[in-house]
Amino acid sequence: MTNTNNGPLASIIITNYNKSNYLIKSVKSCLIQNYQNKEIIFFDDKSNDDSLEKIKSFKKKNKYNFKIISNFNKKKDFATFNHISAIKKCLNIAKGKYIFLLDSDDYFYKTKIREIIKIFEKNKSQKYILDQPILKFRKKLIKKKFKYRILKNKWPKFPPTSCMCFEKKTLKSVLNKISMKKFSNLAIDFRLAVYYSLILKKFYIHDAHLTYYRQLEESMDSKYIKYRSKEWWRRRKEAFEFLNFVLKKNKYPINKSFDLLVTKIFNKILSI
């Protein structure tokens, strides 16, 4: 496929914290996209490895044109809220009509921007598009397939943050409604998926696998071992609390499921 300058501006927001070993691959995947009308914003959240030096050297050596933001005034908040804050800061300077989120240990397939924008432009009412992830392990790749089911008061299954793309104006509005400092275990992808699917009714998963999602032992999700860790049950409790907070605020019936009851019981047992 040939490069094109046609179409609206796309803003790619890459957020980084201590991912020095992977960030160059991430940035390169954006630079080589076959969609030319784009801007890249790289946000370093006060990393204590050599991330900042590496990305600055890479940019200078190759004379690439992308923005680097360094957060030297990072507050001592929890990691999930820091991630949300980083994206909000980048949105304040992003000029694109559409926003593509990318964690710095993940990377895009070369046609991603062009394919997703084509869908946005074909359906002007669409505000939120996800593509399918390719799970990248050390020695193998696995294509994972998500299918969306319409649910009344339960969160959907969804691909990770780096698979998420947005119409900018709506995203700014939604972030202001979900970025409270409660729910320290809930990442931005969960919050966004809940709001867009249940409140806005805007949730579309594209069939194509366009994002490589690294499976790292040191990732933030590694401590949440399904059913077997306290952290997993705590996060599940927060998920229900956030879900019902959003539903109640928007005058929808809250979740009173058996699943919620079990989650409360396990949290009470684990707190003893």
CATH class category name of the largest domain = Alpha Beta
Name the average pLDDT: 93
- Into which percent range does the helicity of residues fall? 25-40%
How many structural domains can be distinguished in the coordinates?
2
Helix count from the secondary structure assignment? 8
The percent range for strand residues is: 15-25%
Topology:
Elements: E1 10-16, H1 23-31, E2 38-44, H2 51-62, E3 67-70, H3 79-91, E4 98-103, E5 107-108, H4 112-122, E6 128-136, E7 141-143, E8 164-167, H5 168-178, H6 188-199, E9 204-214, H7 230-249, H8 258-270
Parallel strand pairs: 1-2, 1-4, 2-3, 6-9
Antiparallel strand pairs: 4-8, 5-9, 6-7, 6-8
Helix pairs in contact: 6-7, 7-8
Key features?
about 270 residues, Spore Coat Polysaccharide Biosynthesis Protein SpsA, Chain A, about 20% strand, 2 domains, 8 helices, alpha/beta, globular
Notes on the protein architecture:
With 272 residues, this protein is of the alpha/beta class. The protein has 2 domains: 10-218, Spore Coat Polysaccharide Biosynthesis Protein SpsA, Chain A (Alpha-Beta Complex); 224-272. The protein is 37% helix and 19% strand. It has 8 helices and 9 strands. Strands 1, 2, 3, 4, 5, 6, 7, 8 and 9 form a 9-stranded mixed sheet that branches. Helix 6 (188-199) packs parallel to helix 7 (230-249) and helix 7 (230-249) packs across helix 8. The mean pLDDT is 93.
